[in-house]
Amino acid sequence: MLFNSLEFLLFFPVVFILYWIMKNNYKYQNILLLVSSYIFYAWWDWRFLSLILFSSFVDYFSGLNIEASKTNAGRKKWLLVSLCSNLGLLGVFKYYNFFADSFSDLMFGFGWEVDDLTLNIILPVGISFYTFQTLSYTIDIYRDQFKPTKDIISFLTYISFFPQLVAGPIERASNLLPQIETKREFKHKWFNEGIFQILVGLFRKIVIADNLGTYVDAVYYNPEIHNSSTLVLATFFYAFQIYYDFSGYSDIAIGSAKLLGFKFHQNFNLPYFSKSITEFWRKWHMSLSFWLRDYLYISLGGNRKGIKITYRNLMLTMLLGGLWHGSSWNFVIWGGIHGLALGLEKFVFSLKKNQNFGFFGYIYTFIVVLLSWVFFRAPDLDSSLTIIKKILSFEFLMPFIGDFNNVAISVLMLLLGIGFDLYIRLKKVDLEILGGKLSIFRLVTFATVIIMLLNLFYSTSNNFIYFQF
């Protein structure tokens, strides 16, 4: 079920009304949320429910057994059960065909032809997100940073909670589970904040991202026929398409949760206003960035074992972070570009007092991010290299635009989006609380304009980009 679908427009109000009718019994509310979340997830394919149920039960009992184990060996054994079960599922459904194809290509390079090893399987929606979420639970218990819950309904609700089930934010058990296991109260301030953030999220997705995507798809579908200026414009559009698409999803998720009395962590904080790649990753998809830092980078040794090991850990973290996004060498290269930039910045910052590059940092950061998006968006490695080569040929002639009206509207909506981001930055207020700070007049005015734009541009044909990950 898509957040920008008519089904969700009917689904959520029903859940909201029933949920607050049960306000005096949070356990009944949890049962409602659990059933609603499974319906929400099964809307794509009910068969995928078996995977999320398997992961949930494995980690529920693994958490209890890690806590109950008397020896460190016993704790490690149950942690391995959790890791192998979850990463095994992720490996089969997301990465098996990638490695099978890569192996076949490698053998072909040596002159050996092997039979087709790929399997006819599809990627379950959201498996990367709920796998990371449930793994953080068992790892935190193993590290003695969290106590396992004995309430299985609360745990199942934590893993499957529909606002963040499919594409995050990746919420830690330490934040979300205590909220699930206590009574929630309806707060008018949170209601205003939630409604406003949902509308902003829909605006970012439907009005900005989907319009930009029309041009991007047309150019990236056949990059060979386009010149440098066209490819640069399409890549520039894509940088904002993916930002507004994914931040829009996060806005709707955070706003929906707030309407139900839950507070999620911020997932985006104006990442393109960054003076370094290091700062960019503190503002972009923050729940994933901090997950990679806490559970991968630190587990590898972080910066505790010398500068060479630190550089290695940075690169490995970003390479695996790239691979997490998709089973393609494109994503590995994308992660490698960011890993290289982070390593270079750490070296440069060690030689100077300031941890940024001043105003030049804005330009440098955006250029690095922009070029890396080519590998993220292109359908395959050959297309990526073709686009990079053509961009660097500097054939900056008049771009082939196609539908000029679509491009003009996209630019206008993009300017509105950037203008709104500048407003938030200048006001020094997070979007998550902006709705509660506006006067009734401003809130109604904002909401009216957004609803009018949503009606003008609404289309059910565009999925959220991060669903494929």
From TrEMBL:
It comes from Aquimarina atlantica. This is Acyltransferase. Pfam families: MBOAT. The lineage of its organism: Bacteria, Pseudomonadati, Bacteroidota, Flavobacteriia, Flavobacteriales. Keywords: Acyltransferase, Cell membrane, Membrane, Transferase, Transmembrane, Transmembrane helix. Coiled coil: none annotated. GO terms for biological process: alginic acid biosynthetic process. The chain crosses the membrane at residues 6-21, 50-66, 78-97, 117-139, 314-337, 357-376, 396-420, 440-458. Belongs to the membrane-bound acyltransferase family. One of its GO terms (cellular component) is plasma membrane. It is a multi-pass membrane protein. InterPro entries: Ac/AlaTfrase_AlgI/DltB, AlgI, MB_O-acyltransferase, MBOAT_fam. One of its GO terms (molecular function) is acyltransferase activity. It is found in: Cell membrane. It comes from the Bacteria.
